[in-house]
Amino acid sequence: MAQQTINIGTVANDGTGDPLRTAFDKSNDNFTELYNASGGIADDSVTYAKLGTEFTTSYTLPVPGAGLPMNVDFSSAQVFVTTLSADTTISFSNQEIGMVKDLILTGDYALTLPAGSTVSGTYDGTVENLIQVVITSSGQFWYSISQAQ
Amino acid sequence: MKAILVNGEIKTFGSVPKSWSDENGLHLNIKDGSKYGFKDVIYPTFDARIEELSNLHLDGDVYTYDVIDKPVKGTLAELKEQKVSELKSMVGEQLSATDWYIIREADSGEATPADVRGERAALRTKSDSIEAEINALTTKKAVVSFDINL
Question: Which of A39, A113, B67, B106 has its CA at 20 to 30 Å from residue A24's CA atom?
Answer without folding.
Answer: A39
